[in-house]
Write a structure and sequence with these properties.
The protein is mainly alpha-helical. The protein has 2 domains: 112 residues, no CATH class; 84 residues, no CATH class. It is built from 10 helices and no strands. Helix 2 packs parallel to helix 4. The longest helix is centred in the middle third of the chain and has 21 residues. The relative contact order is 0.10.
Length: 197
């Protein structure tokens, strides 16, 4: 039986029993259009399982290969369902930060290059640092009841600030890695992180 004929759940189980190199090859074939994926395939399941293998493998080289597979699966997930973009990007960048923490930074590497995470943080950033600081000061000045009323009125701003806070998790993880230097701009964002809603 051909993998293309498998039910989505069966295919996922089969992939997770393979080596990370085989999974990466399969993902590359999918990306190049050499393999079809059944409708309803669980990209999130593949990405999360591969990320979990990357974090828990006892074999260092296997960690990195599973991380590469997870990143590729997150990319497929985001292509298949645009609504998962924020989650997929956050998860992919957190995994990259964890792998950089284990293996160290490596310029040009698809997983280990910290510049990938640094560029991602500023890409599509829809609130400026001064506006975020002003919003935090305004939130701090409100009492608990007034804060909940303002939350409802300014839900869009709160969501934007929450998105920034989520992205800062990966920057925070990078800030602890030897060999990674953050700009003053990013350090200012990190200093504001705990104050964000």
């Amino acid at each position: 039986m051909n993998e293309e004929d498998d039910e989505p759940g069966v295919l996922l189980e089969r992939l997770l029993q393979k080596s990370p190199t085989s999974v990466l090859q399969w993902l590359g074939d999918v990306d190049e259009g050499k393999r079809r994926v059944p409708l309803g395939f669980n990209w999130l399941g593949l990405a999360e399982a591969a990320a979990d293998f990357a974090r828990k493998s006892d074999v260092k080289s296997s960690n990195l290969e599973w991380a590469r597979a997870a990143v590729a699966a997150y990319e497929q997930l985001m292509r298949a369902d645009e609504g998962t973009r924020n989650f997929g990007e956050d998860s992919s960048m957190m995994l990259r930060a964890a792998m950089i923490g284990i293996f160290g930074p490596a310029k040009g590497d698809s997983v280990l290059d910290p510049d990938t995470i640094l560029r991602w943080f500023t890409k599509d950033l829809d609130v400026t640092l001064p506006d975020a600081k002003e919003s935090v000061d305004r939130w701090r000045s409100l009492g608990c009841h007034a804060r909940s009323e303002a939350y409802g009125r300014e839900l869009t701003l709160v969501r934007r600030l929450r998105r920034v806070k989520n992205r800062l998790r990966a920057i925070d993880a990078l800030s602890r890695v030897s060999g990674v230097t953050l700009t003053d701009y990013l350090r200012q964002w990190l200093a504001l992180r705990e104050e964000l809603p």
